[in-house]
Amino acid sequence: MARDRRDFFYRKAKVDGYRSRAAYKLKQINEKFKLIEKEDTVIDLGAAPGGWLQVAKELSGGKVVGVDILPIEEIEGVDVIKGDIRLDRTVEKIRSKIKKEGADVVLCDAAPNMSGSWSYDHARSIDLATSAFECARKLLKNGGSFAVKVFQGDMFPDYLNKVRGSFGKVQAFSPEASRAASAEIYVIGKELLTDAVKMDGEYEVTIEDIGASGDGIARVNDFVVFVKDAQKGEKLKIRIRFIKPNFAFGERID
Ligand SMILES: C[S@@+](CC[C@H](N)C(=O)[O-])C[C@H]1O[C@@H](n2cnc3c(N)ncnc32)[C@H](O)[C@@H]1O
């Protein structure tokens, strides 16, 4: 059954002109989560031979950058970089290709060469997925989206929690085009949260203004925080209770 399904997507990719059957995984991820929209800037980590890049370009039509340690054959309208996603210099090369405010979407389908030892392969997959998560935090704009492949194992729950700490909405998903017997799963993060404020963090602020809803408006590291029951000009201590991509809510704790 698993082999039938794999062969089905393999043959379909040949007919449809995609470089890999993995292309259908990204299509299925995007159908469910609507990560890539028209004109989005998309970065694909571990992109060779380029099936995801073809799909990303079709969906966005905007700037698409693919990165791999292996060469990627040219795709019209797509920038390719040869580099290791675990290295800072690769992140800098990617940054030089995209707009200043950051990318809309970071994807990662990177996989280590399989050794056959489950725990070793799992650990290397978590290592790659962790590098992808760090790239995403450095390269995404606030509110941006992330999708990453992980081979499941005992370190998976910790990894998922780490992603949950940085994105407003996080889900694990297994697309139909993945093999039934495969250990792979995709972690989808939407709404990258700012690192200007931390959940439950305590800050001293000055209320600069009162918003339309009557809440006080303060700033922490240039990030807008709404505070209930506060007066303009008041200096007070707050605890962050809720973070959205462009603002947070804090409660006064004095
Ligand atoms: C499953 S393939 C990606 C397939 C791709 N999504 C497609 O649709 O064609 C995984 C890729 O991850 C790459 N990879 C593994 N480790 C990497 C690393 N440290 N940096 C960059 N690429 C890496 C591999 O070279 C391989 O090309």
What does this structure look like?
The structure is a single chain. This protein has 254 residues and is an alpha/beta fold. The chain folds into two domains: 2-192, Rossmann fold (3-Layer(aba) Sandwich), CATH 3.40.50; 202-252, OB fold (Dihydrolipoamide Acetyltransferase, E2P). Helix content is 30%, strand content 31%. It has helices at residues 2-16, 23-33, 51-60, 88-95, 118-139, 156-164, and strands at residues 42-45, 64-68, 78-82, 103-108, 140-151, 167-173, 184-192, 202-206, 209-210, 216-220, 223-227, 235-243, 248-252. The strands form two sheets. The protein has a seven-stranded mixed β-sheet with strand order 3-2-1-4-5-7-6, sandwiched between helices. A hairpin with a 5-residue loop joins strand 9 and strand 10. Helix 2 (23-33) runs parallel beside helix 3 (51-60). The longest helix has 22 residues, at 118-139. The termini are far apart.
Question: What descriptors fit this protein?
Answer:
single chain, 254 residues, alpha/beta, Rossmann fold, OB fold (Dihydrolipoamide Acetyltransferase, E2P), 2 domains, six-stranded mixed β-sheet, 13 strands, 30% helix, binds S-adenosylmethionine
